[in-house]
Specification:
Layout (H helix, E strand, L loop, with lengths): L7 E2 L7 E4 L3 E4 L11 E4 L5 E3 L6 E4 L8 E2 L14
Parallel strand pairs: 1-3, 2-6
Antiparallel strand pairs: 2-7, 3-4, 5-6
């Protein structure tokens, strides 16, 4: 997977916290069309941050890559135009 842009994470399953492998990302709440405004979040020196829109707690985990989350499948991957 090419690492292009800022990763977007969603919380369709409604968990309280999501462990991710990055400290800078965008939270979108749920996948479109039920998403909230895509808010850029930066943990800075901290290891966790709460989304001001959906209250999901994101926790940085050094054991995860930028394209992983725990629980899995919370990384949003938009379909490319013309992709099948």
């Amino acid at each position: 997977m090419a690492n292009i842009g800022v990763p977007h994470f969603h919380n369709d399953i409604g968990v309280e916290k999501i462990h991710i492998g990055v400290k800078e990302f965008q939270c979108m709440g749920a996948r479109p069309p039920m998403d909230h405004p895509h808010v850029f979040l930066d943990m800075g020196a901290d290891d966790q941050i709460v989304c001001p829109y959906c209250s999901t707690l994101y926790i940085h985990d050094n054991n995860l890559r930028s394209d992983q989350s725990d629980p899995p499948y919370c990384l949003y991957e938009a379909r490319l135009s013309g992709a099948k």
